[in-house]
Amino acid sequence: MAGRLAGKVAIITGGAQGIGLAGARMFLREGAHVVIADKNAEASETAMKELQTLGAVKSIVTDVRNPQQVEKMVAQAVAAFGKLDILYNNAGYSIVERVGAADVPLDVWHETIDVNLNGSFYCTKYALPHLIKNGGGSIMYTASVAVDGNVNQNAYAVGKGGLVPLMRTIAMQYLPDKVRVNLLVPGGTATPRLQQRYAAQGGFGPVYQSKGLLGINDPDDVAYAAVFLASDESRHITGQSLWIDSGFNLHYTPK
């Protein structure tokens, strides 16, 4: 069913690559006007060549760690399309630390928290007045199965895990304003970045297969969930976490 987001205006951070790019494609196909906010200017230019063929889209190069850039980006998005209905906080950063907390480099800690948690807060802060003015809307955050902790990723787990209370607090505070706030929790997803990271290890598919799970996500699997939470089909859903993880959180062990 096409047109589920017809007439809506969306900002997607990290929208030039991976899960964000898949979301941008699907939002456009469903009739939304889309702003992709990504700090990678080259990737943004490449993405725009494709996305412009799908609908009304604008690229604004933005580093979500910088609140001044975020504020300007949101203002430009509203100026371009006249309003804001959807904020999809998808920009993320991670490296596999593989060290204990005592040995995590401080620059890794700060950059990871700045992108994954602080950046999501900045975008939310500056988008909220426009969503409220518009009579409500949808905010989404892309988290990770690491919200439950990850022995190899101290900073990443904290940055993504912090999105849970942020999401629920914002949902409570702005419920009277009809601003819905929800969390997407993807499991392993076959983005080009992760495929490249694990190529030398034979890929990350065998890990999921060995656990008897439903398989690795395609980025579109996350995009389908994002469209649902952005659309009026989820108009009574707020403060919730939607896991797209092939059953990873069930901790299933094959017999």
Unreliable parts: none
- The CATH level-2 architecture is identified as 3-Layer(aba) Sandwich
For CATH, the homologous superfamily is named as NAD(P)-binding Rossmann-like Domain
Mean of residue pLDDT values: 90
**What is the domain total for the residues?**
1
Percent of residues in beta strands?
5-15%
The helix-and-strand class reads alpha/beta
- Looking at the structure, the CATH topology is Rossmann fold
Question: What does the overall shape look like?
Answer: globular
Rg, rounded, reads 18 Å
Briefly, what CATH class?
Alpha Beta
For the biggest sheet, the summary is: 7 strands, parallel
Number of helices: 9
Order of helices and strands: EHEHEHEHEHHEHHHE
- Order of strands across the widest beta sheet? 3-2-1-4-5-6-7
Helix percentage: 40-55%
End-to-end separation: 40 Å
What's the total count of β strands?
7
Description of the structure:
The protein is of the alpha/beta class and 255 residues long. The chain has one domain: Rossmann fold (3-Layer(aba) Sandwich), CATH 3.40.50.720. The chain has helices at 18-29, 41-51, 67-81, 106-133, 154-161, 163-173, 192-198, 205-210, 219-230; strands at 9-13, 33-38, 57-61, 86-89, 137-142, 179-186, 241-244. A seven-stranded parallel beta sheet has the order 3-2-1-4-5-6-7, sandwiched between helices. Helix 3 runs parallel beside helix 4 and helix 4 (106-133) packs parallel to helix 5. The radius of gyration is 18 Å and the shape is globular. It starts with 8 loop residues before the first strand and ends in an 11-residue tail after the last strand.
